[in-house]
Design a protein that fits this description.
The protein is mostly beta strands. The protein has 2 helices and 24 strands.
Length: 403
């Protein structure tokens, strides 16, 4: 017989959390000629039975405790308005140059920014694909200079290293924002293959920093029959106002315009000595405003086929033929369609590249990209012997997910 429902007790639902994911904790100690330090980290994600309440915590350290990366957030999905609150600490380093203090001591200076922030977000879905996002960030930014002093013996062998932190100061600012988001795209083994996505966002920084920020991002995926795909995107980011240049963007990352990565620039291409003031070719890729356009033809190479008699399979591998174009500039720069005959430091013009590559789904955990990129807008330069050089194509390996 069926149970008597009158005997069932009714109680208000109270969430009880259980771990959904725990990363493998790591801890270690390293010592070498340049110093010693601790490193390690861990992360955990928890939720209730219904999945309406979620918490996530993560932390890692690599050297100084004050530079630890920390994250904690609570997310509530129980109502039509989804919301999230949390806090985080992030550390950023910006290389500012190298100088010789004495005959046996070299200083490598870095701008060190420690951002401690609290945040809140509210998300209102209109339907399955479109939503409104409202956000508020409060950031305490501690800026200082990290001087890495490296000591050498008379033969040039490094003897040790000492870190000296100077010029510390705090700035607090708030950044409210609003965004309209649409996403009906479908993701395959290694990339999206159908649908479209867009994000239109505006934010206004107030307090110690003041600027207005705009983000526009549109991506389209046209399936030619799964998994053959043509993908295209247009992305724009702009900051305007008194402090628009405080958080510059870099155009040459592997997820923007490939073929212009930081490490590919030589001293000869930068100028006479490769210093920050001389390397206009590189610094033209940095600005408070940016526009990027990309197109890709994506096709399958391997879809998890087993290796014959061996009891293992190959990971999904996708081939891609692509082209990128972009422009970075600051307020007050002179923007041109093509490179001027004798460009000044404030002259900017579009750059582009093309290439081909593969993307590999590594154990369902990360997408690894291997690209051969050919930049089209890097000038030739002459070395001290009179030989002419020009940057050709080169290989790029990255863990950046495809757009």
């Amino acid at each position: 017989a069926l149970p008597d429902t009158s005997e069932f007790s009714i109680r208000p639902y109270k969430p009880h959390y259980a771990a959904d994911f725990i990363s493998r904790p790591t801890i270690g100690y390293a010592r070498d000629n340049f110093g010693r330090g601790l490193f390690g980290g861990a992360a955990i994600s928890l939720s209730d039975l219904l999945g309406d309440h979620m918490m996530a915590f993560a932390g890692s350290v690599n050297g100084r405790i004050s530079e630890a990366q920390l994250y904690g957030a609570y997310t509530n999905l129980a109502h039509r308005w989804n919301w999230q609150v949390g806090g985080a600490q992030e550390v950023y380093y910006y290389y500012t140059g190298q100088s010789t203090i004495s005959g046996d001591t070299v200083n490598q200076a870095l701008d060190r920014w420690i951002a401690r922030e609290v945040f809140g977000r509210a998300i209102r879905p209109f339907n399955r694909f479109q939503r409104l996002e409202l956000g508020m960030y409060g950031v305490d930014l501690y800026r200082s200079t990290l001087n890495q002093l490296v000591f050498y013996d008379p033969t040039g062998i490094p003897l040790g290293e000492q870190d000296v932190i100077t010029n510390g100061s705090n700035v607090f600012y708030a950044l409210p924002s609003a965004a309209l988001v649409y996403d009906n795209s479908l993701f395959g083994y290694t990339s999206s293959f159908y649908g479209q996505r867009y994000r239109l966002e505006v934010g206004q920084a107030v307090g110690g920093y003041r600027y207005t920020q705009f983000v526009g991002d549109f991506r389209k995926y046209v399936s030619l029959g799964f998994p053959w795909t043509i993908a295209a995107r247009i992305t724009t980011v702009g900051r305007f106002g008194r402090d628009e240049g405080i958080f510059p963007t870099f155009l040459g990352t592997t997820d923007r315009v490939r073929g212009y990565t930081y490490g590919s620039y030589s001293n000869g291409e930068c100028g006479l000595n490769g210093t920050q003031a001389a390397c206009n070719e590189f610094y033209r890729l940095i600005g408070s405003r940016m526009a990027v356009a990309s197109a890709e033809f994506r096709f399958p190479l391997i879809r998890g086929n087993a290796l014959g008699f061996l009891p293992i399979g190959l990971p999904p591998i996708e081939g891609v033929i692509w082209t990128d174009a972009g422009l970075a500039w600051n307020g007050g720069d002179d923007v041109h369609w093509t490179r001027p005959a004798n460009p000044a430091a404030t002259d900017r013009w579009p750059i582009s590249s093309y290439g081909a590559g593969v993307r590999i789904n590594v154990l369902g955990f990360v997408i690894m990209s291997v690209d051969y990129a050919v930049p089209r807008n890097r000038p030739a330069w002459v070395d001290g012997t009179g030989a002419v050089h020009k940057q050709g194509g080169y290989w790029i390996v990255s863990l950046t997910p495809p757009f």
